[in-house]
């Protein structure tokens, strides 16, 4: 068993192939003793926590720290008892170790397919005064340096308990010389990598937007100052949740760093009635001893194969054309058919009909909620259009934005109380829309019926599930006054329930999540939808940063990337079609422009791109990603994909601005087998993997601004 319990010393050693995590029970408290490179079980793991017996709780490295008893750092949980008191003290009562991993009720989580893939430890803690039982769950994966954590709080007493905070994980690491790495952004600027010392007062990232949001991703990593892509220690924390989150790192006066992650306690509370439980979302902790690249590849493997689900998980994703940037709201069935026809000629596999096909939706001011085809625009209906597209040899995909309602809609006129709102207050609109209250069963039922009707009558192979605003006035007409602070989380649970029902009922549909691009690019959504529309910014140069940044955590198979028109609609930049293709082919590939307007020369380029992508798709979508040159630190970007057996590789190189008389630059490849020789398809030379990685090759010479190139390597035997 990769979890060893030492009864004499009351310690638990959780280990994978290369990582150990040790917990000791000290004075009844579960104490964090070690997390890092693997330790030998027979190496005397006694008293790793090194906690001075008489020291205060403020010095105790805890696994789930409480508030109010002498630890003045940020607590992992806090609750209020019926008598108004807010002090609790959890102590170890029992534990259970078992093979495999359990799911989390109502919440997305990583899973195992066989019990030998992982082992779980449950620590049961109790607070005698409040009759509260808290179960800390830890699952260690055998072949990945991954530990998942979540917490279940059960009220065994006779009175309700109000949770004020219930984070998913807290770890006190015995060191302080760390920097934090995380992703910031905004609409059309997602995935920007931030890195800085934690600093006095710590670093806290969070969302108060109702969803995970564009501004900050539910992820944080601690890295040693010497850490780069290929070396140095990394402790990654990612949260499988799509609502308000917090992730924070705090250095205490004794040079311990506490990292915690979970549902944002801001504007959150939850009443746990007698006999009921509260389940936190799951945090995914990754340790890497060889830099950020190794951390990313661990997250990629886990999320691609044990978070994403369904028939599409292991299937090659189709090359699509989406009509949004081609037509916006202004289209007819004939126009759509013409785009699909042009797509068929180019080898494209899926046509996606975006916003504007329902209600009276000729702009973004109306009709969300009325999921009925607009017969003025599509007089023969959706099924007819889908069949026309299918006849051309393309599958048919459809855009929906189910979580929203337009004030100008039949749904809103019939049910004005179905949106999130607070009685007597303004209902703040954004993009002229309000957010439906998915904490309500009747709202979820309506959506399931309305969407189910379309998905079962129209031959829909793909659904783009959009969500285009932050949440405001987060209140529900269906909940009593003392539960209004539960609404954000209940809304999220409602969304997850609806999605579970829909993906279960329509298992063949490939779902792609979207939130004005990457406004909800988080692991929670990936559990239901194995790919995400990464950003509304389709400019190839901007995408270098966005795709590179998001690849810190998210597998390439989840990153939607489309070739769009030049000049680009978001930034007005003119870029070569080949470069746009190379950037988009580094993700889940597609086109988002009017294909009927291509010249013959452009058509020839696109045909080459489409057939190339069909060849490289398995490598891009399931290979290991190695980042070679960072767009955040210069003019050059490069990344490569390597097959699992290291026999095949594909290298992309991009240069933003042309450089006169440039310095001699080298591209050192990664991830190859040093003992193998590789043939490059574009030149006749064969080179050793060691040479390609250690000595490198000269940076390709390119002409003009916004240039790119690529080459393939194949091992020769
Ligand atoms: C926002 C999405 O990110 C876009 O791709 C597009 O689907 C629009 N919504 C449609 O309203």
CATH class of the largest domain: Mainly Beta
What helical percentage do the residues reach?
Answer: 10-25%
Bound molecules: (2R,3S,4R,5S)-2-(hydroxymethyl)piperidine-3,4,5-triol
Could you tell me the number of beta strands? 38
- Can you say what the CATH homologous superfamily of the largest domain is? alpha-galactosidase from lactobacil brevis
Looking at the overall shape, the CATH architecture of the largest domain is Distorted Sandwich
Tally the helices: what do you get?
12
Write the CATH fold name of the largest domain.
Answer: Beta-galactosidase, Chain A, domain 5
Question: What would the principal axes of the Cα set say about the shape?
Answer: globular
**End-to-end distance:** 40 Å
Tally of domains: 3
Question: Structural class given helices, strands, pairing?
Answer: alpha+beta
The stretches of 5 or more residues where confidence is low (pLDDT under 50) are none
- β content, as a range? 25-35%
Kindly report the average pLDDT value.
96
Radius of gyration computed on alpha carbons = 26 Å
Main sheet summary: 10 strands, antiparallel
